[in-house]
């Protein structure tokens, strides 16, 4: 079983490049998860391991240490670029890269450009941690520019994200000589996996969320998080008290009405 290590750059408290409504860490994670899904679904004898599968922060040394300990056959670190004028795609190997790293870069770069198109900034060498400290052939890809408007517009398109994923998959498969499965596993491989920020309400729920928070049913935090039975009990009890107020009226005795309701509920249980 061949092992491919995919490193989604940045994450957690480190968003990477941020511009035009996009965070680098989110694109890197989408692409990384997509590569894992498609490689394992479409090819034989390959296992894809990830530095991160969620929005968490990892030190660079931890990323390469884990990849080295796992005995990965290759490493590909996924990033987006910034500060590049006209934008485009480029890839990096270490300044004193092995022959196999150079071959991996060539296969990846050509496959990604073939799928992505646009400006080719070339195959480059640089003293980057991810390609320097990895014991296996390693390449870092910079997939378009977050701060270049035309590139950012492309990165917002599912078809472009899929093209980036497909290019990585094709390049990795070509380098490793992977064989396509005759019968593919039943996995959702047509769309990249997406994640959401639990601290931001969905657009369709924003108005209702704000209204419920204003009325005291929720505290306004973590709108996208799963609700526990304890939390649902609190919300239901708040609703119950408001209904009692409505029944009792402004001048009604809410405490007396609540006690009577509890008596009725007790009688039903007995």
Automatic annotation (TrEMBL):
GO biological process: peptidoglycan catabolic process
Keywords: Hydrolase
UniProt-listed InterPro entries: MurNAc-LAA_cat, N-acetylmuramoyl_amidase_3
Gene Ontology MF terms: N-acetylmuramoyl-L-alanine amidase activity
Keyword Hydrolase part of the UniProt annotation: yes
Keyword Heme among UniProt keywords: no
A Pfam cross-reference name: Amidase_3
One GO CC annotation: outer membrane-bounded periplasmic space
MurNAc-LAA domain span: 64-173
UniProt superkingdom: Bacteria
Record protein name field: N-acetylmuramoyl-L-alanine amidase
Organism: Paenibacillus taichungensis
């Amino acid at each position: 079983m061949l092992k491919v290590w995919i490193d989604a750059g940045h994450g957690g408290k480190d968003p990477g490049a941020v511009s035009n409504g996009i965070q680098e860490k989110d694109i890197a994670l989408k692409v990384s998860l997509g590569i894992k899904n498609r490689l394992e679904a479409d090819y034989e004898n390959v296992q894809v391991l990830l530095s991160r599968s969620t929005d968490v922060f990892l030190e660079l040394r931890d990323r390469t240490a884990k990849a080295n300990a796992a005995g990965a056959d290759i490493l590909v670190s996924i990033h987006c670029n910034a500060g590049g004028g006209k934008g485009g795609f480029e890839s990096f190997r270490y300044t004193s890269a092995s022959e196999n790293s150079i071959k991996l870069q060539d296969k990846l770069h050509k496959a990604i450009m073939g799928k992505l198109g646009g400006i080719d900034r070339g195959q480059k060498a640089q003293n980057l941690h991810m390609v320097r400290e990895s014991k296996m052939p390693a390449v870092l890809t910079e997939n378009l520019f977050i701060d270049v408007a035309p590139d950012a517009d492309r990165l917002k398109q599912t078809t472009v994200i899929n093209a980036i994923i497909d290019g990585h998959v094709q390049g990795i498969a070509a380098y490793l000589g992977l064989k396509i499965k005759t019968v593919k596993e039943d996995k959702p491989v047509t769309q990249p996996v997406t994640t959401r920020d639990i601290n931001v309400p969905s657009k369709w729920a924003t108005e209702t969320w704000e209204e419920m928070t204003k009325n005291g049913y929720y505290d306004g935090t973590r709108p996208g998080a799963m609700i526990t039975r304890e939390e649902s009990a609190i919300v239901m009890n708040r609703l119950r008290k408001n209904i009692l107020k409505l029944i009792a009226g402004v001048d009604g005795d809410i405490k007396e009405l609540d006690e009577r309701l509890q008596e009725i509920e007790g009688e039903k249980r007995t």
